[in-house]
Amino acid sequence: xxxxxxxxxxxxxxxxxxxxxxxxxxxxxxxxxxxxxxxxxxxxxxxxxxxxxxxxxxxxxxxxxxxxxxxxxxxxxxxxxxxxxxxxxxxxxxxxxxxxxxxxxxxxxxxxxxxxxxxxxxxxxxxxxxxxxxxxxxxxxxxxxxxxxxxxxxxxxxxxxxxxxxxxxxxxxxxxxxxxxxxxxxxxxxxxxxxxxxxxxxxxxxxxxxxxxxxxxxxxxxxxxxxxxxxxxxxxxxxxxxxxxxxxxxxxxxxxxxxxxxxxxxxxxxxxxxx
Amino acid sequence: xxxxxxxxxxxxxxxxxxxxxxxxxxxxxxxxxxxxxxxxxxxxxxxxxxxxxxxxxxxxxxxxxxxxxxxxxxxxxxxxxxxxxxxxxxxxxxxxxxxxxxxxxxxxxxxxxxxxxxxxxxxxxxxxxxxxxxxxxxxxxxxxxxxxxxxxxxxxxxxxxxxxxxxxxxxxxxxxxxxxxxxxxxxxxxxxxxxxxxxxxxxxxxxxxxxxxxxxxxxxxxxxxxxxxxxxxxxxxxxxxxxxxxxxxxxxxxxxxxxxxxxxxxxxxxxxxxxxxxxxxxxxxxxxxxxxxxxxxx
Lengths: 275, 298
Known about the structure:
heterodimer, A: alpha/beta, Rossmann fold, ten-stranded mixed β-sheet, 10 strands, 27% strand, globular, B: 298 residues, mainly alpha, MetI-like fold, 2 domains, 74% helix
């Protein structure tokens, strides 16, 4: 099996705005039902791209197809052109396990492993057989997730003893410990209080220097605060078939989406008229 | 009536007396069910203590059985046989039971008809009478394809097959209780499904699995019927060897003594029941201790 090598895939392009992902006419099916239809937009390097929209619009589905987490759901199927640095993520010679190593993911509900703080961060690097001092890898990741100062004296404590916000930052530390290229975040703050949310947003702004971040959020203010680009999705109902399918309405600079959107539906959503 | 009295009235006075009576009846019924179960256990234990308590001595454990000197006869070969059978059962059911449960929960595609058929069959197997497994053991393990003969290992394999469905079902429940976010979290780091299952799901499910294994072993200690068919009926006066020769087991030996006409043998059988209960308590304690220890490490 040909390895989806990071070096090959990260080959620098001349343009200033390098495309990390490029989606062209992506359809995602769960079984026979079309969950998201004909989605096309780019995701740029070292930017935060926010996916927003009402429930059921398929934003999480699109996020999860970027690192092939959808493969874990029986019956899930992706069609269309989904490229990562010019390579087809769903190519027949691509190992989904390798994809997830390069494209990490942080989930809605903090899901630390039932282990110590140290072991939570070390699990990925250890299992993947990464070289180097494990203590250094763990420290670097925890520093990177702005958590080191809070936990350096209790690395052996169980991760469940941390607050929700700390747990989520631990999950971010765990993700960056395996040195990915992209971090996908699926509503990372929806279970957190405002102070913890602020800390995560602050962290995201720092992380985008080294990583490309894609975030799904229900919180429009959050998208407005952190994202460089925003993609607005909505649900399109087909009454004849009784089906609901997510569609991409608009993708643009975040400031444009929130101040002067091209589509009336976007305007209605960001001004709080529906959703 | 002042305001607080009115509030008290609203809180307590409005309750429907019919509802209260029904709740009392329901509680009494539950209490009665528990009492019946308790009486059965206390009855067995006190009968065994009254009848067999006088025979409790170290000799009971270390002496060989005898068909004509019940006052000095013991259970040595039967105890050793039971230990060997249990050890064999544990060695078989842990990898097979946990493996099957992991396959069904984590790897099997539930859309496929054959996986659903396997699931259904395992549930049914858990309800098959033990004597059927005895016949199976006789036909396929003692004789037939495996042709092991009437040895303790054959008894072990038969009992293992008998309790395997219970272990699989309990292990599956334990795996189901592990939040899927644990597997997702691990896999999102780029580890393989197998690594995520082995390092995250399995340790999280282990205490629950151990509970199933405890139940299975406790049942294995008490099983006599299938063992009668696969060779344990022999009256054994020598230490059994796992791989060859005759063997016996505690419940089988108790059954033999209890069937004799002389009263002294009935006393011996009652004492054997105490030994068996003691053995179950010991095995369960070890397992409970193991489980507690495992739970603490994370």
